[in-house]
Amino acid sequence: MKTIVIGSGGREHAIAWALSKSPKVGEVICIPGNGGTACEEKCRNIQVSVSETASVVEVCKNELSGLNDGSFIVIGPEDPLAAGIVNRLADEGLDVVGPQQSAAALEASKDVAKRFMSKYGVACAKSEAFTSVADAVAALEDIKGPVVIKADGLAGGKGVVITDDHDTAIQTLRDFIKNGTLGVAGRKILLEEYLAGDEISILAAVSVSPGLADQGRASIVPFLPARDHKRLLDGALGPNTGGMGAIAPVPGLDPDILDRFRTDILEPTLKGLIEENYEYRGFLFFGVMITGDGPKLLEYNVRLGDPETQAVLPLMDFDFAEMCRAIIDGTLSSFQFKWRDGYVCAPVAVSGGYPASYLKGLPIKMDKQVIRESGAKIFIAGATANRRKMVRRCVERLSVLFRNRTPGPGELITSGAGSLPLLPSAVQSMKRAAGLTGRLTAFPLRGCSSGAI
Fold first, then answer.
1. Does residue 384 sit within a domain?
2. CB under 8 Å to 365, separation ≥6 — which residues?
3. Global pTM?
4. pLDDT digits 0-9 by tens, 343-394
């Protein structure tokens, strides 16, 4: 069968890679894909922007219409989901992994998500929504301790500010609501209770529809828990980013916490999806804070997380394409999930200046033979490839994975049996020309020490 992955990041590269491993998949089309997917076995890029919904739908129709072999589409990023692309594709009779637009509002609007959590008893932080700077500032007076300010809409990971400084909080409210620094996404904000604890990410497969609910087959199945690292620099001393890496599974996680997650968060969420008559066949990301009072939900993302996907998918010991079909076909509750032993750590290498203005158009050099021999896997985000299919434009993000070993100096860490030593020219290119920020660090896991280049 043929599959289509919509998106261009490291997450989409990981999804395309996982699909390509299935013996049932003959081709993976990536719209628009990136330099990594261009070099991936079975993968073919088609250069259409995900923001051009009509064009994306037309390409999908041309590629899949008339096929009766189980071919399907996976939507990676949140913006096309919020724009209703799943509805458009479903109207054309195409099978899609992703929630329809009404359900996608659980990520597109923090206020919608919070009202959903409150209605169905999902354990979460208290919050209140505001569209007036004056009203929000007045509410600050009643908040003791750090203030959490969240933009209501999609803000590309830049819509959350946590501060214990009153003046900073007021300025953030003015920037979001009045000055429009986040555009329409910040015209409404939420003031949220600050939760102290350890944060984890739980990705899940979802197969919910009114018909499946009537048959008792609606289900949410969680994956292995992961933890992402959002702040730049060693010791989390830098600014928030879209994610500097992830680990999976989470070390030392008490099984009782996962039991509480299921009863206090997952099960009420499933009940809510059913009661709201949502058509939701896709993935759901639970951002969870483990507090002294148990796990509390911070947010929903209505798709796989980035960079958590790059850490979790390599641990799957089942056919990812078959699981996607189970989501679509309503057989998810009986699908057999099996996970590999061990762990994955996926640090992210970024160009100098990220997450602010950063250098672009710089080369990445990799030795394919060394990668092959080491069993390595590198996921690319934001790079393009030249005609020789070598990744040539260094970019915003590059995820490198390792499994079950302690990295050493001078190594990019990989998901294979060993590490990936960079060529000296590549080290110099990335550290000197590309201005690699800080060190490339493998986050310590189960006693592993960190390595760097």
1. yes
2. 390, 422, 423, 425, 426, 429
3. 0.87
4. 888 888 787 788 888 777 777 777 778 767 766 688 988 778 764 443 333 3
